[in-house]
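Record type: monomer structure entry
Structure origin: computed from sequence
Chain ID: A
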Amino acid sequence: MRSVIGAGLGAWSDHWIAHALRWVRPDEAELFTDQLHTIAAAHTAASQRTQHAAKKLLKERGLWGPLPCKESRGRSEDRNRDWLGD
């Protein structure tokens, strides 16, 4: 089921992203943190409602916050950047 959810979260259609987001159990949110951050940060075809749902799921699990850039992990200025604000 995790591979189905992962594929749905990475889809180029809000329809599938929204459905996959509903399938994510709160205790599994950490497994999909990167994809959920991408959705919440509006880097996908997700609607605004879907973006907010992804952000809400991350916040509920204490996973919302700045993520370091993959190219420069470890730099404090990257860790302090918040993609969407609060």
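Annotation 1: Residues 71-81 have pLDDT under 50 and may be disordered.
Annotation 2: The two ends are 31 Å apart (CA to CA).
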